[in-house]
C-alpha cells in the first residue's frame, strides 16, 4: 500500500461528519476499546458512526490477509458499511512506533496522505472518532516533523482522552490535558479505563482525576474479562455522552 497520495484528495469529500479525536495517556491503555464503545453507543442513537485509525503499526495474518487488530476491532464495531481500508488506511507490519515501522519497511508516512485518508469517508458518516496512535505526541511524518498532536490540531477536533488507570495516571493525565490545551484544542471529555485491576486507591485516584481534569468524566471502565463494545459502552454515562457528542 502506498502511503502517499495527492494532497488535492484531502478536500475531495464533503465533510459531513462531526469529528472527535481519541487519544490516550500512553499506548495499550484502551483507546481502541473506548473508540469501539463510542461507535457502538452512537450507532445505537441512530447515527452513522465509525471509529477510524488512520495510522496503525503491527499486523497479524488473519484469513489470508495482513491486518491490524485495532483496525479490525473498529471495523467490526461500525455499521456504516466502511471497508477495512477506510477504517485503517495506513497499516504497517512492524509493531513499533509508526515512523520507525515505516522506515524499516522502506516507506514513509506523509501528512497529506493521513489527512486525505481521514477525510475520504466522512461524507458517509454523521459522527467519526479518529483514534490516534500511542499517546498524545507520537512522530508520524519524519520529513516534516509532523506528529499525532499536529494531526489532531489540523483536524480541529475536540479531544476525548482515555486515561489508563494505574500507578502514575494522575500525572500522565494532567500533563496530557495541558498539552492538548497548549495546541489550542478542547478536551471534550475523558474515560478512565482500568489497566491495573490491583491498583491501590483506585476510587481515590478516580476522584482526584475528576476534580483536576478540566473536562467531564464520560465513564469509568473496570477491568473486564470481555471488553466488547457493548460491555464497555454500558460503563459510560449516556446522558453525558449525549451532551458532549451530540450537542453542537
UniProtKB/TrEMBL annotation:
Return the GO cellular component terms, semicolon-separated.
cytosol
Which Gene3D superfamilies does this entry report, sorted A to Z?
A: P-loop containing nucleotide triphosphate hydrolases
Q: Which N-terminal residues, if any, form the signal peptide?
A: none
The record, for InterPro entries, names: DTB_synth_BioD, P-loop_NTPase
- Indicate where this protein is primarily found: cytoplasm
Per the UniProt record, which EC number(s) apply here? 6.3.3.3
Which prosthetic group or cofactor does it need? Mg(2+)
Protein's pathway: Cofactor biosynthesis; biotin biosynthesis; biotin from 7,8-diaminononanoate: step 1/2
Q: Which reaction does it catalyse?
A: (7R,8S)-7,8-diammoniononanoate + CO2 + ATP = (4R,5S)-dethiobiotin + ADP + phosphate + 3 H(+)
Q: Where does ATP bind?
A: 28-33, 70, 131-134, 193-194, 222-225
Q: Which GO terms describe its molecular function?
A: ATP binding; dethiobiotin synthase activity; magnesium ion binding; protein homodimerization activity
- Positions binding Mg(2+) in this chain are 32, 70, 131
Q: Which residues form a coiled coil?
A: none
Q: Where in the cell is it found?
A: Cytoplasm
Q: Name one GO biological process term.
A: biotin biosynthetic process
Could you name the active-site residues? 53
Which keywords does the record carry?
A: ATP-binding, Biotin biosynthesis, Cytoplasm, Ligase, Magnesium, Metal-binding, Nucleotide-binding
Q: Does the keyword Nucleotide-binding apply?
A: yes
Q: Function of this protein?
A: Catalyzes a mechanistically unusual reaction, the ATP-dependent insertion of CO2 between the N7 and N8 nitrogen atoms of 7,8-diaminopelargonic acid (DAPA, also called 7,8-diammoniononanoate) to form a ureido ring.
Family note:
Belongs to the dethiobiotin synthetase family.
Quaternary structure, from the entry:
Homodimer.
From the Swiss-Prot or TrEMBL record, give the protein name: ATP-dependent dethiobiotin synthetase BioD
Gene name, per UniProt, is bioD
Amino acid at each position: 500500500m502506498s502511503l502517499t497520495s495527492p494532497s488535492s484528495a484531502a478536500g475531495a469529500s464533503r465533510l459531513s461528519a462531526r469529528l472527535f479525536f481519541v487519544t490516550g495517556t500512553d499506548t495499550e491503555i484502551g483507546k481502541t476499546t473506548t473508540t469501539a464503545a463510542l461507535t457502538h453507543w452512537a450507532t445505537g442513537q441512530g447515527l452513522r458512526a465509525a471509529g477510524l485509525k488512520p495510522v496503525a503499526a503491527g499486523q497479524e495474518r488473519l484469513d489470508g490477509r495482513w491486518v491490524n487488530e485495532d483496525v479490525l476491532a473498529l471495523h467490526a464495531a461500525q455499521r456504516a458499511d466502511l471497508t477495512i481500508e477506510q477504517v485503517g488506511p495506513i497499516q504497517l507490519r512492524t509493531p513499533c512506533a509508526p515512523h520507525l515501522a515505516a522506515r524499516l519497511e522502506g516507506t514513509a508516512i506523509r501528512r497529506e496522505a493521513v489527512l486525505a485518508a481521514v477525510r475520504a469517508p466522512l461524507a458517509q458518516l454523521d459522527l467519526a472518532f479518529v483514534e490516534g496512535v500511542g499517546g498524545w505526541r507520537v512522530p508520524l511524518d519524519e520529513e516534516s516533523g509532523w506528529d499525532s498532536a499536529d494531526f489532531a490540531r489540523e483536524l480541529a477536533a475536540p479531544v476525548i482522552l482515555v486515561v489508563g488507570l494505574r500507578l502514575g495516571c494522575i500525572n500522565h493525565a494532567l500533563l496530557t490535558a495541558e498539552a492538548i490545551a497548549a495546541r489550542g484544542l478542547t478536551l471534550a471529555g475523558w474515560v478512565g479505563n482500568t489497566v491495573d485491576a490491583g491498583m491501590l486507591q483506585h476510587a481515590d485516584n478516580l476522584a482526584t482525576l475528576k476534580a483536576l481534569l478540566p473536562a467531564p468524566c464520560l465513564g469509568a471502565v473496570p477491568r473486564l474479562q470481555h471488553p466488547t463494545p457493548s460491555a464497555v459502552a454500558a460503563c459510560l454515562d449516556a446522558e453525558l455522552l449525549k451532551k458532549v457528542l451530540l450537542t453542537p
